[in-house]
Amino acid sequence: MIESNPPLLHHYGTLVRNPSNLVQVDQQRHIGGLVPAEECQLPLIDLHGLKSPDTRESLECSRAICRASSEWGFFQVLNHGISPELLQSMRREQLKLFAAPFERKATCGLLNNSYRWGTPTATRPTQYSWSEAFHIPVTKISEEACYGEDFGSLRGVMEEFAAAMSNLAKLLAGILANNLGHRKESLEDICDSSTCFLRLNRYPACPMSPEMFGLVPHTDSDFLTILCQDQVGGLQLMKDSKWVAVKPNPEALIVNIGDLFQAWSNDVYKSVEHKVMANEKMERYSIAYFMCPSYDSLIGSCSSGSTSPESSSVYRKFTFREYRNQIQQDVQKLGHKVGLSRFLLQ
């Protein structure tokens, strides 16, 4: 079999050849999708309603965003303000970038050394992701030196795309903050574009599918994520204690709540576990924008931030820096993220 770009097959095979991991492979075949996940339609919200002169229509659109964030932790948006032309341009540049040889992606400092593939910390197959990505700090996107000779056209497109995603994230986060009784500005004081990220994902076709994760089950460690995905599918989320597959919508972007928004909202909004399943025959592409706070802003919940003012805080106060450091420590020691439960008051 021809080796993949990147060399995922070699690394996965090394893990499987460890006899103690064979039972993990059998378990993952069941977890990974031999039992098909039920397909779901995420709440679909037309943001055009926010601009309606009818106050009731505008208010109902805002309520739908808040309701989906509480009940699902995920929703889709239409009329989001990002043009089809920009999305198509971003997709073309993304395809060109990932088509580069593995050695060039991994060793030349491309895009601020943001390239990553597989799961370097994996010790068993259930921790392994069949994917590659560029996880790029938004502050580095405009730096011409990050692109090299062959990807100059990517810079302008990605600058425009990141700015559009940032505006959309701020709009949605402002609505969610207002619902909690906070001014929109209070969230903008916490969130800082200097710590936001754009992540370009590629999930190659996988000969071991459906026993492989494209991306292992996780929650997002940010405030808010906006995802632009293609029509291949593979995204699944936990709903009512079972995995459900998200049906792709070519006109919609997907939005999901991150851990920090759940903490900041005192568990009003939900950061939901999700994963990507590998596809045996088709590669999948997506782009995610992560809205993050400044590293030293306090995040922990307070009773005044809850829709129930009399309720007590669920989490102790912590910073984004503390949260990231704790995650890194847990992944190093345990092989997986623990997350918000580390910061509960009780």
Automatic annotation (TrEMBL):
Pfam families: 2OG-FeII_Oxy (PF03171), DIOX_N (PF14226). One of its GO terms (biological process) is gibberellin metabolic process. Belongs to the iron/ascorbate-dependent oxidoreductase family. GA2OX subfamily. It catalyses: gibberellin A1 + 2-oxoglutarate + O2 = gibberellin A8 + succinate + CO2. Transmembrane segments: none annotated. GO terms for molecular function: gibberellin 2-beta-dioxygenase activity; metal ion binding. InterPro entries: DIOX_N, IPNS-like_FE2OG_OXY, IPNS-like_sf, Iron_ascorbate_oxido_reductase, Oxoglu/Fe-dep_dioxygenase_dom. Keywords: Dioxygenase, Iron, Metal-binding, Oxidoreductase. PANTHER family: 2-OXOGLUTARATE (2OG) AND FE(II)-DEPENDENT OXYGENASE SUPERFAMILY PROTEIN-RELATED. Its EC number is 1.14.11.13. Signal peptide: none annotated. The lineage of its organism: Eukaryota, Viridiplantae, Streptophyta, Embryophyta, Tracheophyta. Residues 192-293 form the Fe2OG dioxygenase domain. It comes from the Eukaryota. This is gibberellin 2beta-dioxygenase.
